Amino acid sequence: MKSKTGVLLGRLMRNIMRSPDTIITVAITPIMMMLLFVYVFGGAIETGTDNYVNYLLPGILLMAIASGVAYTSLRLFNDVKSGLMARFVTMPIKRSSVLWAHVLTSLVSIALTVVMVILVALLMGFRSSAGILDWLMVAGILGLFTLALTWLAVIPGLTAGSMEGATAYSYPLVFLPFISSAFVPTETMPKIVRVFAENQPVTSIVNAIRALLYDGSVGNDIWTSLAWCIGIMGIAYFFASKEFKRKLG
């Protein structure tokens, strides 16, 4: 399975590298949002920190991931509609290799996008006191979040009837950080909005990453964020696998 998955992964990555504008396009929106909030709105937003880009970055990274998984749906949709997926499953390879190749491609391409966003943040003044272990934990959380959303993306990639339908689901995910602690503290929100913001996955993930990068003490946020990521990934994997078997027999 590993060798077959590697071959299929190589095919998808070659397609991306031939057209690197995919990675650049995914990075543009979160980078523009970061520039806008830091240099236009940053002076009017009270977060209790001296460096707003430090406060903002974790949420921007989650936006970049949510934007990137839309291309997973699109790539999968194109393979299904072109008949390429049906040809793959008739070959002497494990069927799950086909889906895992798309998932791993998403993980690699989004990792490249995240690195681009962090580099721009460094130019804007982002600084962190995190050690190597803290950075590895941040990478782990971002990786789990990417896997969770990617398996979620597999479902519309298999079921959508049009290219627009395959990618439309990602729009709410991109804007979910706006109703969280990503841009402003939840304490400043009206009560009803605050209740939602404090009990949705983005807030716990943002808080955990922020603590790892700056405070060094994550408390319960790390466990809550891991529970959200693993829970979403498990449910999405179940339904994606079920739909894959139903669609291609």
TrEMBL record:
GO terms for cellular component: ATP-binding cassette (ABC) transporter complex. The lineage of its organism: Bacteria, Bacillati, Bacillota, Bacilli, Bacillales. It comes from the Bacteria. Keywords: Cell membrane, Membrane, Transmembrane, Transmembrane helix, Transport. It is a multi-pass membrane protein. GO terms for molecular function: ABC-type transporter activity. This is Transport permease protein. It is found in: Cell membrane; Membrane.
